[in-house]
Amino acid sequence: MKNFSRRGFLAGVAAFSAAPVLSQPAVQLSVSGDVDVAIVGAGAAGIAAARRVASAGRSYAVFEAGNRIGGRIWTDRGRLGIAHDRGAQRISASGRNPLVALGRLAGVDFYEPAPFRRLYVGQREARDHEYDSFTAALHRASRAITAAGEAGLDLAAARTLPDLGEWQATVAFVLGPLMTSKDLEEVSTVDFARAEEQRDEFACRGGLGQLLAAAAKPVKVELDAPVVRIDTRGRGSITVETSRGSVRANAVIVTVSTNALNAGLIRFEPALPKRTADALAGLALGTRDRLVFQLPGNPFNFGADQRIVFKAADARTVSLVGRVGSADFAYAEFTGRFGREMADAGEAAMLAFVGDLLASHFGADARKEIGRAEAVRWSREPWILGGTSVAAPGSSANRRLLAEPAHDRIFFAGEALHESWYGTVAGAWISGERAADAAIRRLTAASTAQRAVPAQKKR
Ligand SMILES: Cc1cc2nc3c(=O)[nH]c(=O)nc-3n(C[C@H](O)[C@H](O)[C@H](O)COP(=O)(O)OP(=O)(O)OC[C@H]3O[C@@H](n4cnc5c(N)ncnc54)[C@H](O)[C@@H]3O)c2cc1C
User: Fold this and answer.
1) Bigger pLDDT: 446 or 15?
2) Is residue 50 part of a domain?
3) Nearest C-alpha to atom 52 of ligand 1 is from which residue?
4) How close is the Cα of 417 to the center of ligand 1, in Å?
5) I need a surface site. Which of 226, 281, 376, 422 has the fewest CB within 10 A?
6) Residue 372 placed within a domain
7) For residues 284 and 19, what is the distance between their CA atoms, to the nearest angstrom?
8) 195: nearest Cα among 159, 148, 146
């Protein structure tokens, strides 16, 4: 079995046309008045930001539009009745990932899923020479994109692909939709080159949701409180308006996904500067939706948490992860443009596609092995609207641009902000901490300036 890896093989738009329905419970916010920092969103970035603001002795309020914390980290039983990660399921075990130490302190049960992957060619697993030629093609393609990116040529990654013969479509799928959630035509070479390998990944027994819950324990979050307007027009504090009331803050950290922001779910007054709006547009999320399904008795002999890729003739393909957490279920990941097309077609279409895929690789009876199934469509989660962010060709500077505050007091955070760990939980977490540090520095500078004014007047 070969370990054909770039970024361990996986690190990790159109906006949903209808705006989410705002639930309007009569309950007012439990927080009111003034806070130092308002934080919008309680995913990894929002929780990290809140912890950092609190540890600096500043007051904060976290507003979450949904009825749970975690955002794209979501461990749930769903229709299958087995607790599983519907979004992120692995984190990098690198020493630079602060979540590992935090999880260990909290007693989270990490494990290292088997790293090996399988490649299928028709009705059989690839032979050794096929693994070798596929791996060579994968590395050639990856090197070509990276070389262009490192030379500063910010092009569509697809334009740099060499002739990969029989592996063209499979390699384009692995490096594009599977790794980045977008097709290589929509991926910047420079952004691709900056992405760091996610090696030695950890998963959590019981789901990554446990890790986030442990991290969020000290953090107070207002759930079901979508922020609808952020008003920086006044000279003093900023008004942050939710569907259940408003607070005033001296700084705001926005951790909402780029697609939700691009869809205009929050009204900024005045509007965001053009450079910020353009930066957000160039960092749109791709698609990473799933069909989760039971496979009782492991009929295809999948290894635990094993990723399976199929030799493809075109972009109409998906990857599978088998025996998730050693349980009798698997999921198919619908990524990139094709994934989006299928997700839009609906759960029945996704299930039919998976049935056909299994039948073509494991025999006509394979369809019968599928038990209960459920689609997890992040592209339709009303406050997220997609999978993960990757820069469009020509947009590789956008992450840095977005890290600059808008209107001096609005700080952005989230996976899209991290230059080399974008599309990951660790990247989101670190970006939250950085945005909090920047907001605190801004508050400290403002209060120092205020104290200096009366002192100067006295003299
Ligand atoms: C299917 C899938 C698999 C993935 N697998 C992995 C993996 O294995 N490993 C990995 O490291 N990463 C993975 N990722 C990526 C990872 O999940 C994300 O990078 C990370 O969780 C993003 O965190 P965030 O805080 O930036 O954003 P989010 O998690 O999106 O959090 C933003 C929050 O803001 C809230 N919000 C939106 N609008 C408003 C509003 N107006 N008011 C208030 N709140 C609002 C949302 O409800 C959400 O809770 C995966 C992602 C997907 C979709």
Assistant:
1) 446
2) yes
3) 87
4) 12
5) 281
6) no
7) 17
8) 146
Q: Is residue 146 part of a domain?
A: no
The DSSP line for 143-155 is HHHHHHHHTT---
* pLDDT the model gives residue 12: 32
Q: Using CA atoms in the order 82, 306, 88, 109, what is the torsion angle rounded to 10 degrees?
A: 70
Instruction: Give residue 307's Cα distance to chain centre.
Output: 19
For a pLDDT cut of 70, what percent of the chain falls above it? 92
Q: Among candidates 287, 165, 226, which has minimal Cα distance to 42?
A: 226
Q: How many domains does the chain have?
A: 1
Q: Which atom of ligand 1 is nearest to the CA of 386?
A: 53
How sure is the predictor about 13, in pLDDT bands with cuts at 50, 70 and 90? very low
> Residue 343: exposed, middle, or buried by beta-carbon count in 10 A (0-12, 13-18, 19+)?
buried
In 3-state terms, what secondary structure has residue 252?
strand
State which of 72, 100, 267, 381 you would mutate to test the pocket of ligand 1, scoring each by most atoms of that ligand within 8 A of its C-beta. 72
Query: Using a 6 Å CB cutoff, which residues line ligand 1?
Result: 12, 40-46, 63-66, 71-73, 87-91, 226-227, 255-257, 260, 265-266, 288, 378, 383-384, 387-388, 414-415, 423-426, 428
Phi and psi angles of residue 215, each rounded to the nearest 5 degrees, phi first: -65, -35
Task: Fill in the DSSP letter of residue 21.
Answer: P
193/195 Cα distance (integer angstroms): 6
| Phi, psi for 250 (deg, rounded to 5) | -90, -20
Q: Given a cut of 60, is residue 76 above it in pLDDT?
A: yes
Domain span at residue 447 reads: 34-73+207-284+389-458
| CATH code of 397's domain | 3.50.50.60
Give, rounded to a whole angstrom, the gap between the first and last alpha carbons of the chain: 78
CB burial readout 118-135, b (16+ within 10 A) else e: bbbbeeeebeeebbebbb
Cα of 347 from ligand 1 centre, angstroms? 22
pLDDT band, very low/low/confident/very high, at 89 (cuts 50, 70, 90): very high
pLDDT at residue 356 is higher than 80:
yes
Pairing of strands 227-231, 238-242: antiparallel
Query: 403, 412 in Cβ contact below 8 A?
Result: yes
Using one digit for the tens of pLDDT, what is the confidence trace for 169-227?
999 999 999 999 999 999 999 999 999 876 678 999 989 999 999 999 999 999 999 99
CA of 72 to the centre of ligand 1 (A): 3
What is the average pLDDT score of the chain? Answer: 92
Residue 304, classified by CB atoms within 10 Å of its CB into exposed (0-12), middle (13-18) or buried (19+), is middle
Question: Which is nearest to 98 in space by CA: 257, 252, 212, 220?
Answer: 212
Cα three-residue angle 318-319-325, rounded to 5 degrees: 140
The whole-model pTM stands at 0.93
Residue 49 falls inside a structural domain? yes
